[in-house]
Amino acid sequence: MPYQGGSIQLGPWTEGVVYNRPPEDVAANELSGMRNCRINAAGAVEKRKGFASFNDQSAISGTPTVTGAHEYDYTSSASHTVITAGDKIFYYNSGWTDITGSVTITAQTAGDDNTFSFVTTGEKSSNNNRMVATNGVNPPIVWNASDASVSVLGLDSRFTTAQHIAWWDNRLWCANTDADDNRIWRSNILDIETWGATDFYNVGSAITAIVPTQSYLAIHTEDGIHTLTPTGNASIPFQLQQTSQAGTISSRACITLPNERQVFVRPDGVYMWAGSEEINKISYALDDGYWPNLNASRLKKTHAVYYPSVNEVWFFVPEGSSSRMNQCIIYNERFNIWFGPYDNFERCCSALINEEPHAGGYNGKLYDMVSAGYNDDGNQPIEANFTTGAPAPSGSDVSLRWLYGRTFFDAVGNYNLLVTQESGGLTASANLINLEDAGFELDVDSLNQGKLGTLRMISADTDLSGYDSQCTLNYNNSVVDQHFRIRRSTMVYRPIGRMRRAKSGVS
Q: pTM of this prediction?
């Protein structure tokens, strides 16, 4: 009796990209690879937005490396964007205004050293919250938005420099100082210039990050996470205890999520911690095929930013032999999936500004990483592609004749998308589909247009070929100002019989 024809649906890709399994073991709702693409809330794959210079600003004179960025909310309704670049500090006021004054800032000399961390305090000094910044090399600096320039923070000579700072429980906290790398200090309440001689805690090894939550202050070392918890006792105001056996290696890639969870980088991947004794690895999908390809010697320089409106954490990482953070791999914490990487850039620091990820370049520019256009830095094309998995629809022992593929997409414009089939280890001739058509209208009431995009979904067919039990499709576009949004694909086949297997003992 002849085998009946059939089809396999690929997508929506709600389980993200999976690098730790071969394509034949990647499910229909997973991807086996992607570049410069994202996955939206409906599981559609779309080309990422481009990046552009912040407010179209030209590079700072001398093109210094931007080593820090911060959105400084000096009142409940007003803010300044602040950056450190080279040996200066600037805020944005219809252009970059130098507020360095007489303060000494040591410019970056190699790698990603001398990078800055920032906090906004809650003191409301002169009706303004103040901003504190530190790079672990120079004394911390402080700025009130009403002042013409920054100044050096007074520390009562307890220490001179600090690697890490945090604002928590109405105090400024400084850790890993030039005096003791395993010590964290606390200021007086609402007084960041006063530091008691015994107002410190030792945690046994070098502190790698301090991260505030609503309930406690998390203190990371490479071999554990400690917590400081308020006691309500004025004599012993905080209780220190170790809660886990491993912490982060990178202070700038330790991020607080809703519900007091933290995600952070370790040598073998990304972990999540929710305050218990256990930490849980969340980056298994990146094992083997992605994480081992990063420059292990530079992982401590990884930095990250949380993008709350879409529940994403962006990790800027060093791919290949790069000493700089030249890719971004993204974790969606709501759906527990990964996508990316994004590439074609090098970024030294990152921050959430105007509710969007921004990052500092090595060329004197701060970049909006999700600008309105589909090009990079004004006019550079984005090379975007993704590859489906290759699940066997009828079992691996059935040979299939692949007939055609049907792609469902949003009508985004008169753009061409290159579709390439791969089966049996061979790449078939590529086909073009045009992303413009009359289409049909979806049910308006069932869609969130803001998250899912256009209501017009189109289908287009491409010829397939070859005889094999499995097949993948690759989609590619790399033209300036063009984009795509692919919702799903269907591959149609005809079984032609069981695949021949070698007899036992025959090679």
A: 0.93
